[in-house]
Amino acid sequence: MKKELKGQLNAQEVADLKAKQAIAGKQLYEVSAEGHIAYLTTPSRQILGAARLMADGDQMKFNEIVLENCMVAGSEEFKSSDKLFLGLVPYLSDIVEVAEVRIKKL
After folding, report:
1. Domain span including residue 61
2. What is the pTM of this model?
């Protein structure tokens, strides 16, 4: 039997959350560490812009704001535990979706 992680949703809850995010045009991501799990969604331009403005150059504050606005379910320990938060920070850029753009000098 698979050990349940703190904050873990059941399969139906994950499917419902994934469908809800898809309707909004967003992707759902799952992160886990040390017995905890959280579910994150893609940040919008508005969230990224507000985070940049509110953080006023403080990268750690920027990451906290992004996590606060993109975590849709799971263990709150990712927000309150320095160890879990700092472990997650390098992966926050992975939830930002961007298109591959080509530029051509004319």
Report:
1. 13-93
2. 0.88
